[in-house]
Design a protein that fits this description.
globular, Rossmann fold, single chain, 236 residues, binds S-adenosylmethionine
Length: 236
């Protein structure tokens, strides 16, 4: 976190501090990567997470997002001095065109819930791009297990029609599902919730100001960050 404070601002943040979410994933599942390993940061937003992933792993990173253009992210990566290591891409996660079986690791921070909430998505849209022995690390907002399947009832005042995207760790484990190539799937309530939210609520971003009204009443009692770890089987 200390190394990246200068990059974390109201301009680069798109929600609760994604650097904190990433830090917890790195601590829980330490990675040993080589410079020629390839990582996908799926739903990278302004590329803050891609910067941290690139610097911390030394690997080659594809930074893919839908709402932020490749041109805009590419400019930022050049300014940050990581232009040679990170390739910006602008594609819908439902229709990616990467080379198959190339990613050693896939990260998705605060974005997977937007596009991957249906069973079969992982097997159809993600797995084909993962290398044998690869790892998937996801951190997204969701519901605490105690409130499984009650997002629309509990969160609609805050999230409106997007409430359905908030699912519990228990439900995400089912949604990811199984496959002959999947060794294990773990989901859990992450520890970084308070720190990540406090950093976000302290900014003057207009969405953060909107979230402040709901934090004590809805966000804190019912929601969490869901961590998801998937290990792909090694070649038999
Ligand atoms: C809340 S932002 C988080 C961005 C970044 N990962 C972070 O933590 O700062 C959610 C991101 O999900 C991306 N996203 C939403 N739907 C997508 C889709 N179908 N394909 C790719 N990215 C998508 C958006 O473009 C947006 O930048």
């Amino acid at each position: 976190m200390e190394n990246y404070k200068a990059y974390i601002s109201a301009e680069t943040m798109m929600g609760p501090n994604s650097a904190r979410i990433l830090e917890e994933l790195f601590d829980k599942y330490p990675l040993r990567l080589a410079a020629d390993d390839v990582i996908l940061d799926l739903g990278c937003g302004t590329g803050l997470t891609s910067l941290i992933i690139a610097r911390e792993t030394g690997a080659k990173v594809f930074a893919n997002d839908l709402w932020v253009s490749a041109e805009e992210n590419g400019k930022r990566f050049e300014e940050w001095g990581v232009g040679a290591q990170i390739t910006p891409v602008c594609e819908d996660a439902n229709n990616l065109h990467f080379e198959k079986r190339q990613f050693r690791v896939l990260f998705s921070i605060d974005s997977y819930h937007y596009f991957a909430g249906n069973k079969g998505f992982f097997q159809e849209k993600i797995l084909p791009f993962m290398k044998d022995g690869g790892e998937v690390l996801i951190g997204i907002p969701g519901l605490k297990d105690a409130y499984t399947d009650r997002a629309e009832e509990l969160l609609s005042d805050w999230l409106g029609d997007d409430a359905y995207m908030f699912k519990s760790p228990k439900r995400w484990k089912e949604i990811i599902g199984g496959d002959d190539r999947i060794l294990l799937v773990k989901t859990w309530e992450m520890d970084c919730f308070n720190d990540a939210w406090n950093d976000w609520l302290a900014t003057d971003n207009e969405y953060a100001i909107g979230d402040r009204k709901y934090f004590e009443k809805l966000i804190k009692p019912y929601t969490c960050f869901v961590g998801i770890y998937v290990k792909i089987k090694d070649v038999q």
